[in-house]
Amino acid sequence: MAEDRELLPRVAARDEAAFRQLYERYADRVFRYALTMLRQRHLAEEVVQETMVAIWQGAGSFRGGSQVSTWIFGIARNQAHALLRREARGAREPEEPLVLPDPAAAVEREGKVLAALEGLPPDQREVVVLAFYEGLSYREIARILGVPEGTVKSRMYFAKRRLREALT
Amino acid sequence: MNCHEARELLPWLAAGALPPEEQGELMRHLAGCAACRAELAQEVRLAREVREAVAGLPGAPEGTWGKVMARTRGIPLGRLELGSFLVGLSLGLSLRGGKLPLSGELEVLGRKVPLFETEGGAR
Fold this sequence. Notes:
A: Arc Repressor Mutant, subunit A, 8 helices, B: 4-stranded antiparallel beta sheet, 4 helices
């Protein structure tokens, strides 16, 4: 299977099969990240679309200075924050809860974790999701967010404290 | 490394996202610090629970790929195929963003190579 890094030049050369592979690898992950940030499915889908269009248009500009995933999540993050700003300016639609109550114990625990995530300030929530769900290092996250590494670490520190309080 | 410095790095160790070059000193600290080992166990549990909860969220809706394709490649309007199963040339006309771009592809033994794509004028 081709590495992400091998797919981008093919996407830049307008290879649809390579583009489809990248989509398959990232669409769900970007959607879930965006959903935790925006809490509305149609907006999360918009983030996926905008991110994929930006990849199609900008694949040739990727210079390899970071992981492909860092580059892609940087795009997704910019799109998500642009939508947040747009929504803040207009009439805001009610946010959807990330999870509906379910009687099964395991699912109930997942629901509690998601509710605890929802309770975090957005800047802490995205650090937690990018680290624990995407497995990105604090350096990669700092690059995506455009903040110092120390800021990422302190956001994680406060996020964990709140999550633990909510989950115990 | 003291406990404060170690605990800053524990979430990334728990997430499997701590670069190898930063793991050595942390591992040495953990070997001699039961309190930080106990902290790590909690971090690992929290990381796993968050990962599983987020992974349990729905993925991108079914129609998203089609929408992405309509915006990048356009909605296909027509295609002309020339040649044989060994070598072929195809010309495609599509509707994309109010324009009608024309694209050409060369296909050699099943491998497609994009040849050109026009911008397409305004409709």
